[in-house]
Amino acid sequence: EVQLVESGGGLVQPGGSLRLSCAASGFTFTSYSMNWVRQAPGKGLEWVANIKQDGSEKYYVDSVKGRFTISRDNAKNSLYLQMNSLRDEDTAVYYCTREGYQLLGNGYYYYMDVWGKGTTVTVSS
Amino acid sequence: EIVLTQSPGTLSLSPGERATLSCRASQSVRSSYLVWYQQKAGQAPRLLIYGASSRATGIPDRFSGSGSGTDFTLTISRLEPEDFAVYYCQQYGSSVFTFGPGTKVDIK
Hints:
heterodimer, A: mainly beta, seven-stranded mixed β-sheet, four-stranded antiparallel β-sheet, about 60% strand, B: mainly beta, three-stranded antiparallel β-sheet
């Protein structure tokens, strides 16, 4: 069964740090780019970060640049999000997602086809 | 940066009715990069439609997507009780993903 399981969420004070993990199983982890997506309470979805298959390229939403770092350990089939200098507005459920793709003519379709159940991060004093 | 706008914010319909959801982009989006997700309360989102019009595996054929350029539509031909949820469109470009604010389909 294809599965993503997040962990590491919790309550942290503003300015603090937290490291999220995502364990992947049931598919060839090294074949896929991976993402973190978050959802603040009662709000919509926000893409946070992306990492390519070999970890050579990483991309971030502007609001987390310089504070969050996405990484992966392909030997452990794991994805991580190191979150530093946390702010109240980082409070959210954080989802790990797989970036699925299909060949289309001379290009590709891209989409998030596998989602974990999420882990909750609360930033509060 | 491409901004996605979804309308209406809330759609109140009865089971069996047709739902038409709109997603508008601030600039042209490649159709192959336009995606729709469904999210039920307390659950993670689920992939519905990719490439603007291709149904994901296991998605019933009452769900269909269409559109190009800046205007895209998700249609649910006949609402089933399990379809009442929030629907998000998303676009992909240069390894960056952007979501729309969502449309909630609730029971009238």
